[in-house]
Amino acid sequence: MDKVVIFDTTLRDGEQAAGGTLNVQEKLEIAKQLDKLGVDVIEAGFPISSPSDFEAVRLIAKEIRRPVICALSHANAEAIDSAWQAIEEASRPRIHVFLSASDIHLLYQLGKDRREILELSRDMVARAKKYVDDVEFSPMDASRTEPAYIYQILEAVIEAGATTVNIPDTVGYATAQEFGDLIEGILEHVPNIQRVVVSVHCHNDLGLAVANSLEALRRGARQVECTVNGIGERAGNASLEEIVMALKTRNDFFQLTTNVDTTQIYKASRLVSELTGFLVQPNKAIVGTNAFRHQSGIHQDGVIKRAITYEIMDPRSVGIPASSLVLGKLSGRHAFKERLAELGYSLDDEAINHTFQVFKELAEKKKEISDRDIESLVAEELRTTSEVYHLDHVEVSCGDHNIPTATVRLIAPDGQILADAALGTGPVDAVYKAINRIVRVPNRLTEFAVKSVTEGIDAIGEVLIRIESDDVTYTGRGAATDIIVASAKAYMNALNRLLAVKKQRKNR
Ligand code: KIV
Ligand code: ZN
After folding, report:
1. CA distances for 326 relative to 2, 108, 344, angstroms
2. Which of the ligands is closest to the CA of residue 166?
3. Per-residue confidence (pLDDT) for residue 126, from 0 to 100
4. Among the four residues 28, 50, 150, 199, which has the most C-beta atoms within 10 Å?
């Protein structure tokens, strides 16, 4: 049975999704979870694209030792040198060079002819090879490129030292049969192809990314590039969890395995959703909240009698927690810590103590604390570790005969306590205006959404917002039983991200 190399690009192509910006610490947090998940390669970023991307790749290369750590690079000398500087401390470094190959890109974007592109591809792979043995090459927009030209490029880059050749369906245009034919053609017509791993990288513009990737694997590809929750540029990339679970569940058909510990999938999905601010749709395969819920009476009856009647996968196999322990106000620190561990969290003592204190406050308000509540508390804790300004106090007065008024108190980075008040069209508007009077960074609110973590009037409310400043979108999330407090926390979270980026730019 063959092994498929799982190449995760959540931190690179996934983060390219509009509004999904992650800071360096958040990227490291996700990389740690990808390591636990057992992916073979982590594409940690695109070092030449920004100083913070460079820093994130460098940190991940230093800290995460088991998987291959890959850095993406344009096909030019400066980008390759920067990619190498970012990953040189990795225990297993890889440089991934890409260059457009389709006539559409050559004509309208690059203004170069096929011969020039072929030579540049070969020369830049050779340059990367001087730094590192493990070099991947991608002819971008391959699915809209004449196959005979792809064969020539691949032969040349393999000759120059590429060890993996990746075939991207950059714009999500291919159908499964066409893409499978392309892979089969490559395996048949590139004379030195047996020396390398053939990889695929599919986008989801037509909703075919997973189907195309699976077909390519069936036809002989042995590396698949994918992202947690399928996030990525435009409609996203092929979803890691769907590919891995399809290979596992239909092993009888594919006869392929991976190194992924599938019980870590749910945790990875939640973490990526929390940190990017991209909610997972309820009907999303494998990790959506409805993915294992049975509503119809006939289905429920069947599942009670035997799960196999309507369930093709065991929810526990993807790590959806089957909670046996119900936590409440009498639960002690020990039980709380145990539950955190069962849910896969490893917080330091200070973070456990603080989260436990918040848990106790919540338990005073709510009879039973669910796993989703705990996940929300932990997410809140992780958010506050990277704060610039801390929200210390928020108070509103509103009603149908009042002008909404808010008072807020923030703690500044130097420890100073800053307070202000404002009127608004509603309580949230008043809170945001009061915060703006203190923080004073121009921005525009583009999205505001509230949802409850669990059912019931005493549920935690989660607020997701997006703000825009200098054409960059920043996501913020906040959770509390009071949705005005949750809204204030979400705004502070987005502002803190904005401020961190501005500070980084100033230090450049
Ligand atoms: O979609 C694409 O072509 C890419 C390349 C950089 C591999 O992301
Ligand atoms: Zn891509």
Report:
1. 42, 60, 17
2. 1
3. 98
4. 199
Question: Tell me, what amino acid is at 90?
Answer: A
- The tokens describing 225, both together, are 């590039």
Mutate to test the pocket of ligand 1, among 98, 141, 167 (most ligand atoms within 8 A of CB): 98
Q: Tell me whether residue 305 is in a domain.
A: no
Q: Which of 141-150, 163-172, 453-462, 477-486 is least confident?
A: 453-462
Residues 6+ apart with CB under 8 A from 409: 391, 392, 393, 394, 417, 418, 419
Tell me what pLDDT residue 325 has.
Answer: 60
**Among 45-54, 185-194, 264-273, 299-308, whose mean pLDDT is lowest?**
299-308
Counting from 1 in the atom list of ligand 1, the atom nearest the Cα of 166 is 7
Mean of the per-residue pLDDT values of the chain: 92
State if residue 96 touches ligand 1 by the CB under 6 angstroms criterion: no
Q: Is 443 in the pocket of ligand 1 (CB under 6 A)?
A: no
Single-letter amino acid, residue 102 = S
Long-range contacts of 339-343 (CB under 8 A, 24+ apart): 339/371, 339/374, 340/374, 340/378, 343/267, 343/371, 343/374, 343/375, 343/378
Q: Is residue 468 domain-resident? A: yes
Establish if 484 belongs to a structural domain.
yes
Could you tell me if 337 and 476 lie in one domain? Answer: no
CATH label of the domain that carries residue 501: 3.30.160.270
Residue bearing the CA closest to ligand 1, atom 8 = 13
Judgement on whether residues 392 and 349 belong to the same structural domain of the protein: no
pLDDT band at 507 (very low <50, low <70, confident <90, very high): low
Q: Which domain holds residue 440?
A: 387-507
Tell me how far the alpha carbon of residue 415 is from its chain's centroid: 33
- Residue pair 490/465 in contact (Cβ under 8 Å)? The answer is yes
Look at the chain and report how many structural domains it folds into: 3
**pLDDT at res. 1:** 57
